[in-house]
Amino acid sequence: MAELLANMFQHAAITNGVTVRVSVTFMPDQSRVTNERWFWVYHIRLENARDDRIQLRTRHWRITDGRGIVSLVDGEGVVGETPVLDPGATHDYVSGCELTTRTGSMEGHYGFSREDGSAFEVAIPFFPLAAPATAR
């Protein structure tokens, strides 16, 4: 079962003992193509393979649309949470992204803290956003 779940994630990065896995899905029912609005949901899984407890504090996203226009998004936690991950623990969340182009990409990093308060960054892997050609 664990292998099946791991295979549903299309992109992964490992930094400082933390794995970030991403699965992205285009949402035609939530997109408004005639208004040049395309929408994707992405599922993130954070896996702590470290020997210490860590807490996600911040997020930094670099979102690039199909025209090459970059938007930076910084904020506290993820979807209103700052999860604590014990050694061996995972945390999953789902969020979304809307673009005014049929294609784009996302990447970034999370800011984590150790129990002693020291901070470190964890990479969010690059992943493409691409609507099917029929979603024009």
Structural write-up:
With 136 residues, the chain is mainly beta. It has one domain: Sandwich (Immunoglobulin-like). It has one helix at 2-7, and strands at 11-15, 18-26, 38-48, 54-65, 70-76, 84-85, 90-99, 103-114, 119-130. The relative contact order is 0.27.
Question: What is the topological layout?
Answer:
Blueprint: H1 2-7, E1 11-15, E2 18-26, E3 38-48, E4 54-65, E5 70-76, E6 84-85, E7 90-99, E8 103-114, E9 119-130
Antiparallel strand pairs: 1-2, 2-3, 3-7, 4-5, 4-6, 4-8, 8-9
Give the tags.
1 helix, elongated, mainly beta, 136 residues, 9 strands, disordered N terminus, five-stranded antiparallel beta sheet, Immunoglobulin-like, single chain
State the gist of this model.
This protein has about 140 residues and is mainly beta. It has one helix at about 1-5, and strands at about 10-15, 20-25, 40-50, 55-65, 70-75, 85, 90-100, 105-115, 120-130.
**Molecular shape:** elongated
Order of helices and strands: HEEEEEEEEE
Helix count?
Answer: 1
Write down how many β-strands occur, each being a DSSP E stretch of 2 or more residues: 9
Any idea what the CATH superfamily is called?
A: ApaG domain
